[in-house]
Amino acid sequence: MVDGLETVRTEGTPQGSPLSPLLSNIMLDDPDKELERRGHTFCRYADDCNIYVRSEEAGKCVMTSITKFLEGKLRLKVNRKKSAVDRPWKLKTLGYSMTGESKPRLRVAPQTVKRLKDKLRDMFRRGRGRNIVKVIEELSLILRGWIQYFRLCEVKIVFEELDQWIRRKLRCTLWRQWKRPYTRARKLMNRGLDEARAWQSATNGRGAWWNAGASHMNAAYTKLDFDRMGLVSLLDTMLKIQNHSRTAVYGTVRTVV
Fold it and tell me: What is the pLDDT of residue 57?
């Protein structure tokens, strides 16, 4: 579809089609064998491949030689904008990256976190005039799929930070919806704040984002309040997935014994 009109495809295969990985495995079988012949450690998923070497100089040599192999022998085009020689923890593969520790751990790549935030910002802008529960329902659909995809991550701090950022964006949306100081004071009092604190907070003259991170909005809308509204917590979901995995493994071992 181009500008809402159906057009005839002239190259490529439909995204998500089982034909795409099949063709990539057929075409890239030769490079796999070539890398194995050279003794390189590598990881390939469809047309996305990481090759691991011991030095930057070796990386540049491998990049040059494998590009020549792909473009010369197989007549495939290498995307040079997405290709690079760098440290493993500075690159990403399928949205994942790793830490720079002696024993690396899987983490969500920073570029992936930025892309998610950009996507959610658009949704928050559309949700300024909508019921907050409806916004949370739409938001949770995205978050539930996202955390399932990144369930293998071992670094959890990014999920906690994203949870905090999302709750602050929701508080910011509420603050903007309330608009007038009188409405803000009344809403804060309805959420349990005393009258003096509610009026002081409602008339502070600060912007929506500042107020969304201030103590009065955190007290009015706690994490538990958002949980009750149905907001998916990335960190809580990750911990549940990992605990379930440990329980399943333990149960299997116990059964075998």
Answer: 92
What is the structure's pLDDT at 5?
Answer: 84
Of 81, 78, 97, whose CA–CA distance to 89 is shortest? 97
User: What is the residue type of 114?
Assistant: K
The residues, any chain, with a CB within 8 Å of residue 91's CB and separated by 6 or more, are: 50, 84, 97
Rounded-to-integer distance, Cα 190 and Cα 193, Å: 7
Q: Extract the tokens encoding 71.
A: 């473009």
What is the distance between the alpha carbons of residues 191 and 224, in angstroms, rounded to a whole number?
13
pLDDT along the chain (257 residues), means of 10: 79 78 88 92 87 90 92 88 86 87 90 94 83 91 93 92 96 94 96 95 95 96 94 92 64 42
Secondary structure (H, E, C), 145-211: HHHHHCCCCCCCHHHHHHHHHHHHHHHHHHHHHHCCHHHHHHHHHHCCCCHHHHHHHHCCCCCHHHH
Instruction: Give the contacts of 190 (CB within 8 A, at least 6 positions apart).
Output: none
3-state helix, strand, coil in the chain (%, to 5): 60, 5, 30
Q: In terms of Cα–Cα distance, which of 217, 232, 135, 138 is closest to 172?
A: 217
Give the CA distances from residue 41 to residues 51, 54, 62, 204, in Å, rounded to whole numbers and listed in that order: 6, 10, 12, 59
Using CA atoms, how far apart are residues 41 and 36, in angstroms rounded to an integer?
A: 8
pLDDT of residue 246: 60
Residue-level pLDDT at 81:
86
pTM for the model: 0.80
pLDDT at 3: 79
Tokens of 142: 């995205």
